[in-house]
Amino acid sequence: MILPIVAYGHPNLRKISQDITPDYDGLNDLIANMWETMYYSSGVGLAAPQVNRQIRLFVVDATPYIKEHPETEGFKKAFINPHIVEEKGEEWAFNEGCLSIPDIHEDVMRPEQVHIVYRDEQFLEHDEWYDGIIARIIQHEYDHLEGKLFVDKVHPLRKMMLKRKLSDISRGEIEVAYKMIFPLRKKF
Ligand code: CO
User: Fold this and answer.
1) Which residues are known to be catalytic?
2) Ion ligand 1 — residues with CB under 5 Å?
3) What is the structure's pLDDT at 80?
4) Is the pTM of this model over 0.90?
């Protein structure tokens, strides 16, 4: 089932998400729906708060980057209860976008490597390091669980220039090819 995606400005995108237990109701269906929603909207990652669940869960499929980044081959994973332990390496710029913030793409600086612990769908614990583009997607999705968005990281002057566009998104005054929940849409 394709789920509506919460748009910029919604308070639920600013909350800290909580860990879940293996008996979390409907977890497998939720993950399946998140994959379906992510592919339908042509994303490479989707976090639970974006579909209005304040839980620590995100999905990543990095394979669309295969051409420029061969290490993404077959990289498709759900991360349950992820916690970043450490980030290191030099900060580098990458042009990020977000399904909750359609039509805005900005260069964002983040450290090169990330150390993360998480559970898979069988609730087995993993303790892994990632770098490059895979780390980048993980860092972006992880931020959603902490109530952070990539536009928070752009230069304040640049963000001022985006203000109008961001408020249009919150009010639903944009063309978007997938279903969204707009926090400030006028009711008729
Ligand atoms: Co995002």
Assistant:
1) 141
2) 98
3) 98
4) yes
